[in-house]
């Protein structure tokens, strides 16, 4: 396939790689990995990346004791975190660069944390889990750069003597320009999804500034370097996370688990054999343990804890 592989898929490929390196990997595990790889071209591309990294570093996972990762009862937190850092080597260079930039952010949140800010111009921002921004204001422009993750922005109007400074939000794919609007912006391959809650704003693609578009309240679109995706109706639940809620309406279990994983430290994965199951409901993000328990009660699945930091939703 052409184009970048999403971090979530690279993450899944790394976990599959570790699982198959363990001494208790079964033929069923190998078959499940094959099905995962065959289900989408992006999965296979991520798998090949994992293999290349392993070859480059000389069977890196086994050399660092990856087999112990499957021994959940004896694995220490320190050991798990070490394994997580090792697997970080499998991430694409561009993604690692973004991570490094986030370390120097003006504001950031840890996994599972949300944070509310008010900037010097009165603009209010709420950062979602695992997000980071930098802020730069000057006489002509107010600029906020989303380095990672997702945020809700309530842009304040900033006018002096009839001259207004626009708020420019820079993210993957290009810029969002607004004077007074409320919107949610989330980085997701291959760009950033923008949902407008009130007001209006302009989307400017990085490589095609002449192909931008205006969005108004109730609209959303994907902003990429090459252009703006089809305009659509913004989800009524786009900002639910600001209230600590995840709503599912006939949602694929695989998609639901991927969303929940954004708020949980470590790895939370969904076995491809149950990924197409559907669920509906309203779930609290601040405590994922009861949410996982509810999945096992409502669907033909069980929650497998290899360690506290590596959890999988698998068939019963």
Automatic annotation (TrEMBL):
GO MF entries: sigma factor antagonist activity
InterPro entries per the UniProt record, alphabetical: FecR, FecR_N, Ferrdict_sens_TM
Domain FecR protein: 106-201
Pfam annotation, one family: FecR
Domain FecR N-terminal: start-end pairs: 12-52
Protein name per UniProt: FecR family protein
